Every structure is written in structure tokens, then in C-alpha cells.
Amino acid sequence: MKMTLKTLPAALGLARSLGLLLALHGGAVHGMGMDVAEAYRQALRNDPASLADEQSLAAGREKSVQGDALLRPRVNLQLGVNRLHNRQSGDSSALAALPGAGSGAGSGSLDGLGSLGRGGSSTGTTAQASVQLVQPVYDLGARASRRQLHEQTTLAQTQFTAARQQLALRVAQAYFGVLVAEETVRVVQAELAAVRQQRERAQARFDVGQDRITDVQEAQARLDAVTTREVSAQSVLELRRAQFRETTGTPPNQLAPLAARFVPRPPQPAALADWQARGAGGSTLVLARQSEQAIANAELSRHSLAGRPTLDLVASYGAKQQRGGLSPLVAPDGDRTASVGLMLNVPLYAGGALDSHQREAVARFGQAELQLAAAQRDVRLQVQEGYLAVTTGVSRVAAQEQALASARSALDATTRGRDVGTRTALDVLDAQQRLFSAELDLVQGRADYLLGRLRLAQAVGELDEDTLRGLGPWLER
């Protein structure tokens, strides 16, 4: 069909309709695309920071094992081998005091000492082995340290959960960033096509003497401006795609677009106070600060108890053997010893370090208390911010849908007015720009609404994969 000046407005309307249809019904183009939950699963497998968080959690879990070990018995094995060379003088007067040294019967015993009584030297090898068991019986400082290490494991788990929630939010931001950038490119390209047609129409009318040269120049200026915006939109799209790829490890080739029938819902429960209560008890920021406070409290207890006596049960067994010509007085052969007892350790003076550590622990505990109060304040604000983003997002999307309908009607009226001579080509260009801006505002408003829901869930500590799957009704599949 040959396009004429009379059929041009209808063609523009068809182009706008097709552009908006592609923007809002992108599911027909993408097919079964990747949703936010699937993108999150990809990030869990590919994101180096996520994998590092898993290693950090594994390390943190060992803290509780180390704490339990403080109250368990410790067993040590000691082995030793020595090479001895003994030289004795000929003076045996020191042996005269030995029993039987002066009797004939005792001379045999004296001879049994080898060369020790006659002077000379002897060489041999000695070996010894011992096993010692130490079981803490009374050690309040160790119990405080155990409690502290268990709290460090709890803190590691909380930090891991917080990192997972932050990753989910980053994935969602990257996901919707790509969608908004794609819609921006589509809308700008549709606007570029419409402005180009207006430029051609103005040129054609000027050629036949029906329009002024200023109409052509204004259309050309608008065309240049939209062309610049299209270049910027393409650049932003490439950046958003790169961010998504770096976050998830997969290219954003088939992302599920926003649903055509997008019906936002207010938060449930509807009262802000209920969300504040959930945030106070479930926020990972608050839970982390509570664990840090408990760790500081255990540290204070540990240093407060550092001057207390400790009592340990100690049991040991040892054996010695020797080979060579060594005298039994130098190196007993076949010696066996066993002992069981209690060891009391009472700290008396440590140069003032105990008092200094205790004062430091008091200050650290006070710092942890204040940081917990600050975290509770921040969470209240974060919950309120997320709550308002959802509640106002419902009204905002509805208002933007109405603004889009009004902009479409205004463009139709302006186009008819131009055809009858009551409106100018510049008026049509302005109306077109308002329509395309309304389309972009609607897409951005819908994405902001969904991100607001996720931020609210994160603020109360409930953002997880199930939350991401809950976005399904607002995505085209």
C-alpha cells in the first residue's frame, strides 16, 4: 500500500501500538524466559562472592567445635631418644655409703655397677615415653570462651543469611535493570521512527508549500535529540547486560519480561506496625548486632574470670629404657611411673594486664550495645522505606497507567488538530514525546514496585528464593 500524507497518522498510530505491544508483551518474543528465581540460582552457582560466603560459613561453624574442645580432656604423648656417654673417675668413695659396700656380700653388688666403681666410661642409648591427660574440672574462663565461640558460629550463620539476601537483591536489581534498559531502547527506537516519519512529512509538506521551513528544522532538531538518546540507551543496555552477566554468570538472553496484566498488590499484613515487629525480630542486621553483643558479653566475662583459680585433673604414665653399657644409676632400665592428681593454678599478678583487658572488654561491650541500638533504628527506617515503596507503588502504577492512557488520547487529538490546521507539527512531536515518556515511566514504576517488595522482605529478614518465586504473577512466562 502506498503511503500518503493522509495515511501517515494511521501508520504512526500502528507503529506506536506495535512498539507498546512488543514492550508489554515481550513474552511472546522471549518465550519461556529465565525468571528472577532462576537467575538467583545461577548466581549461587557462579558468583565468586557467593562461593566465598559458603567458605566463610564453613569456617564459622568450626568456632563452636573449638569452643566445645575447651572443656574436653587433652591428651599428650611425648617420646624421646638420647645418646649418652658417661665418664667416671676411679674414686669410688662415694659408693662406700651404699648398702653392703663394705661387706663381701656387697662386693658382688658393687661389681654389678660395672665400671662405675672402677672408673672409666660407658656409652648407651636411652628412650622414654609418656602420656598425659588433663581434664579441666573448674575453669570459668574456659566456659565463657566456649560461650563466646558458639556465638561466633551464630554470627557466621547470620552473616551468611544476610549475604544471601543481599545477593538476591543484587540479582533482582540486575534483572530488572536489564528489563528497563531493554524497554527504554524499544521505546526510544519507536520514538525515533515516529519522529523520523514526522520529519519526512514536514519535508514533504514543505516541498509542496504547505509547511514552513521552521517545521522541518524543528522536526530535524527533535530527530537529532532522539538519535542521541537512542545511542545513550544502547550504551546503558550494554552496561546492564554486563552487570547481569557478571552477577549471575549467565548472559541475559531470555529474561521473562514484565506481565502485560500487571496488578500490584498492597503489602500483607497491611499495618506498618506489624512489619516493624517482624523487622525487630528477624532482620539480619539486628540479629548480627545481637550476636556481636553476646560475643562482647562473653569476652567481658572471660576477662572478669581471668583472675579466678583453675583446677585440672592430671593423669600421666611414663616408661624409660636404655641400651648399652650405661650404669642403672645413670640411666635406669625398665623404669615405669604412673600418677593421678589435681593441679590448682592461682593467678597472682600479670603486670596489670588482667585489669586492662577487663576495662577494654567493658568498653567493647558498651560499644556493642550502642551498635545494636543503632541497628534497631536503621531497621525501623528500612522497614518503613520498603513498606512505603510498596504502598505508594500501588498508587503510582495506577496513576502511570492512567497517564499513559491520557497521553495516548492527547496524541490522537493533537494529530487530528494538526490535520485540520489547529495544531502544529511541533505540537505533535511534543505529544509523541509525552506518550513515550509515559510508557517508560510505567515500565520503571512497575520495576520499582517489585524491587520495593524485595527490599521490604530483606528489611524484615525474609528475602529468600521463595520470595523471588513469588514475583511470578508479575512476570510473563
- At CATH's second level, what is the architecture? Up-down Bundle
* Mean pLDDT, all residues: 85
Largest sheet: 4 strands, antiparallel
Structural class: alpha+beta
Terminal residue distance: 36 Å
What's the number of extended β-strand segments? 4
At CATH level 3, the topology is: Outer membrane efflux proteins (OEP)
**Compute the gyration radius: what is it?**
42 Å
Number of helices: 12
What ranges have pLDDT less than 50 throughout 5 or more consecutive residues? 1-12, 14-31, 94-98, 100-117
What is the general shape?
A: elongated
Q: How would you sum up this structure, described in words?
A:
The chain is α+β, with helices and mostly antiparallel strands and 477 residues long. It has a single domain, classed as Up-down Bundle (Outer membrane efflux proteins (OEP)). It is 64% helix and 13% strand. The protein contains 12 helices and 4 strands, in the order H-H-H-H-E-H-E-H-H-H-H-E-E-H-H-H. It has helices at 8-24, 27-30, 36-46, 48-69, 104-111, 140-207, 213-248, 272-282, 284-304, 353-420, 425-459, 465-469, and strands at residues 74-88, 120-138, 310-324, 335-345. Strands 1-2-3-4 form a 4-stranded antiparallel β-sheet, with no helix packed on it. Helix 1 (8-24) packs antiparallel against helix 6 (140-207), helix 6 runs antiparallel to helix 7 (213-248) and helix 6 packs antiparallel against helix 9. The radius of gyration is 42 Å and the shape is elongated. The two termini are 36 Å apart. Residues 1-12, 14-31, 94-98 and 100-117 have low confidence and may be disordered.
